[in-house]
Amino acid sequence: MVKESTRAAQFWHKVDGDAQCILCYQECRIKPGKRGLCGVRENQDGTLMTLVYGNLIAANVDPIEKKPFYHFLPGSLAYSIATMGCNFRCLHCQNADISQTPKETGKITGQYVPPGEVVAQAKDYGCQSIAYTYTEPTMFFEYAYDVAVLAKESGLKNVFVSNGYTGEEAAKKIMPILDANNIDLKGDDEFYKRVCGARLEPVKHNIELMWDAGVWVEVTTLIIPGYNDSEEQLRGIAKFLAEVSPDMPWHVSGFYPMYKLKDAPSTGVEALRRGVRIGHEAGLKYVYAGNIPGEEEDTKCPVCSEALVERSSYRVMKNSVVDGHCPECGAAIAGRWSKP
Predict the structure, then answer these.
(1) 104: number of Cβ within 10 Å
(2) For the segment 9-19, what is each residue's pLDDT rounded down to a tens digit?
(3) Please, which residues bridge with residue 252 across strands?
(4) Cβ atoms 175, 146 nearer than 8 A
(5) Where are the alpha helices (DSSP H) in 154-252?
(6) Which CATH architecture has domain 55-299?
(7) Given strand 315-319, what is the order of strands in its sheet?
């Protein structure tokens, strides 16, 4: 653990010598010498500390489509950063080696990188945004916020890729400088309790909260056969999203066995097609199939069906959106678009 990375945490208060954390909706009550469920926030002599400030475990240049964002600066690059730690315990976690290690072993690794250096690197690589991703960005909130402030001042955009469990106070603090958030909506409440160690309602609340505040929101659902692929669950998710806004993009993605769900089968193409169909039937205008190349990757005009953004995996092959509108029929295309 790097010394510079241990800093006073935000979003907590004292309760009889314990630290009551309210950074996320787990709301851990942490005794002296102990850590929260995330494994990266520790009560040190009555003061809650973050152990991962600037302690980067990953820093990469990614296409924004990889997050995935399909309606936010398509074709651009995002400088993607993460520290260790997560407030979920998803059995299917694709980054368990960095998200779950602190709570499973107590070890925290990484390299200290000051906020200003992250912004400088992003600009040097020609990125238009900084993505706080790979693990749950809420867990390195203090650092993410400081980076995001500098990024905004430098003309860069800020995007979260999140499980949507950010606490109310933290969410409201970051929203004014957060441009976009891809939030996982994983299943029904039983799925959250059984597979993730969490609850559904806070996630739904944050999706609505951020959308209403003007943060661009896209939602991802990883379809896991036998766990969250029922017609009832998918229709429930689609109905909720359509009620928030039919303009909100929904990514239904294919699962591949990993971590503690290695015995579960991979998602078939037909399951993804069914998810796309259910999304459209619920009234969503933009529904995409992910993790299986060639399946429902393009953005089409919801009025005239013109293919506006054509993609091949994470590459944008064509972008004909003009000032947020379809060039064929003039219909408004929801999103945050760069000029073609």
Answers:
(1) 12
(2) 999 999 998 99
(3) 221, 289
(4) no
(5) 168-174, 189-191, 201-212, 231-244
(6) Alpha-Beta Barrel (3.20)
(7) 299-300, 307-312, 315-319
